[in-house]
Amino acid sequence: MIDFKKIEKDFPILSSQVNGNRLVYLDSGASAQMPRSVIERISNYHAKEHANIHRGVYELSERATASYERARSKVARFLNVKDPAEIIFTKGTTDAINLVAHGFGRPFVKSGDEIVISHMEHHSNIVPWQMLCEEVGAKLRVIPITDSGELDLDEFENILNDRTKLVAITHVSNVLGTINPIKKIVSTAHNRDIPVLVDGAQGAPHMKVDLADLDCDFYTFSGHKTCGPTGIGVLFGKRALLEKMRPFEGGGDMILSVTFEKTTYAEIPAKFEAGTPPIVAAIGLGEALDYLESVGMDAIEAHEKTLTDYAYQALQTVDGLSFYGTSESKAGVMSFNVKGIHAHDMGTLLNDEGVAVRTGHHCAQPVMERYRVPATTRASFYLYNQIEDIDVLVASIKKVQKIFS
Amino acid sequence: MSSKQIYQEVILDHCKKPRNWGKLESPTHKAEGINPLCGDHIWVTMNIKDDIVDDIQYEGESCAICMASGSMMTAKVKGKPISEASTLVENFRSLTTSPDWDDKDKSLGSLSIFAGIRDLPSRVKCAMLPWHTLTSAMKSEGDISTEGEHDPVPGSGTDRG
Questions:
Q1: Whole-angstrom distance, CA of residue B30 vs CA of residue B134
Q2: Are residues A25 and A60 in the same domain?
Q3: Residue A359's closest chain B neighbor by CA?
Q4: For this structure, is A363 an active site residue?
Q5: What number is the ipTM of this complex?
Q6: A351 in contact with B at a CB cutoff of 8 Å?
Q7: How many contacts, defined by CB atoms under 8 Å, are there between A and B?
Q8: Relative to the CA of B46, which of A252, A271, A371, B151 has its CA 20 to 30 Å away?
Q9: Would residue B152 count as lying in a domain?
């Protein structure tokens, strides 16, 4: 049994103060904090191990290369992927989705074809597909969502047709917290030979992701939402697809040979990693995944479920509070508004109490439009949060209400 | 000053009892202001006679900072020549964005409470929206949006995602 009280102590930033109050960090959905082991790994790399990778024949370069490739293997292990070559390092989830929109979309999506997304997508899983559709004359189809914030799966089946070239869907909604039935979505799409991309930015950090079981064709996530550094993300792609895709960027490290007449591209994953990658960020991510696995993804998911259930009850003691996203299948993301108080005023005044929450449209304007609100306040939880954090949140919201009363 | 104090001392008074709230029936000048980043959506309607702000009303849906800024703005510019209103817009912009700015002639009066917004860079746009909309109404440029406005506060958008 993991003592989650002790986990908090692994994160140096959580002992800091904001406006004379203990920092209560409830914005891990935007970016998670880093444990000491990751901070030290990054620092040690800079102090003792740095050199460019895949180039030098000297010891430092060999070691940096080995560390970078070890990080790739750790990601593969984390996602239960057998072949590390199917793991591409990117700048983040947004970059990973753009890579697929370019590398898969440009060559294989034609005029009249369709791409299917959902009404609960983050802008990063909307805009790249919109840009692709505009460019090639394809059509974007949107799976509707219910009042409780779940995908309308009947409508999903109706939308699929012979022109559908890809389904791109979020694993977990960053606003509503809904955990989507990915396995079912994948099997429905695969029955029609349609590949599926899963935006795992809010999924992979919070639960065990077994890609051998989910069987999606692409899966993406971000390092900084997974207790790792910014500037690094992951694209998993099935080998057969990655091999027939077009490279995203051209440059060094992604080639086999270059002449002025013709360039032959490198094998995957190098084909998609042009230029010097964020080496230290990849190594930091590998360390972060080690840390998360040492706690255990199932234990983390259970801890967050405890927090979410508690928060759901505790927040209901606030008069005039309404939730957005009330699915039974819900991760630790609570979006809400309190009657008569704009989310931005709420966020500013909660900051006075040391409470960090996200306010606004959460890069998901269609979700805001669906529920007819300009903005919401969002509290999101991670392994280092405690029941007391939620108590502070609820007490602080009540203080804000007093100011407005 | 904590943001709580700013809210308590002035802003909430104007939110609960906004001054000059509404839309003039047949204004000589009007503008709509939108901040797509936080969903603020406001209207400023004016009657300008002989280069004087004869009447001005303000209405919209917004956060408390935007609402209070709009309410206090209408009270401030009503009856003033439009040249003075334009100066007030510039002074208010300086107040909310330039740490070294000094309101020597006390032109802004009680609006000086908004100096505290400098400590909340992400909220400057909320406070500025009514003033941008006023400028727009005076020129009657039509709809305005604070997106792309060149405020001297880089990256002050509340929600760019």
A1: 8
A2: no
A3: B159
A4: yes
A5: 0.83
A6: yes
A7: 63
A8: B151
A9: no
The range of the structural domain enclosing residue B101 comes to 3-145
pTM to 2 decimal places: 0.92
Domain extent for A234: 39-294
> Which residue is it, tokens 């510039």?
B90
> Sign of the CA dihedral A314, A319, A323, A328?
positive
Tens digits of pLDDT across chain A (405 residues) = 789 999 999 999 999 999 899 999 999 999 999 999 999 999 999 999 999 998 888 999 999 999 999 999 999 999 999 999 999 999 999 999 999 999 999 999 999 999 999 999 999 999 999 999 999 999 999 999 999 999 999 999 999 999 999 999 999 999 999 999 999 999 999 999 999 999 999 999 999 999 999 999 999 999 999 999 999 999 999 999 999 999 999 988 888 888 888 889 999 999 999 999 999 999 999 999 999 999 999 999 999 999 999 999 999 999 999 999 999 999 999 999 999 999 999 999 999 999 999 998 889 999 999 999 989 999 999 999 999 999 999 999 999 999 988
Based on the fold, state whether residues A266 and A302 are members of the same structural domain. Answer: no
Q: Is residue B106 part of a domain?
A: yes
Q: Which of A361, A373, A403 is the closest to B7 by Cβ?
A: A403
B33 lies in a domain? yes
Distance from CA of A124 to the nearest CA of B (A): 9
Determine the Cα–Cα distance for residues A25 and A382; give it in Å rounded to an integer. 9
Question: Which pair of structure tokens corresponds to residue A286?
Answer: 């590998």
Q: Which of A133, A216, A227, A363 is catalytic?
A: A363
Q: Count how many domains chain B has.
A: 1
Domain count, chain A: 2
CATH at B77: 3.90.1010.10
How far, in Å, CA of B146 to CA of A318, rounded?
Answer: 33
Interface of B with A (CB under 8 A): 2-4, 7-8, 12, 37-41, 61-65, 120, 123, 126, 158-159, 161
> Do A340 and A237 share a domain, yes or no?
no
Residue B85: name the closest of B142, B130, B152, B151 by CA: B130
Question: Is the same domain home to A196 and A325?
Answer: no
Note the maximum CA span of chain A.
73
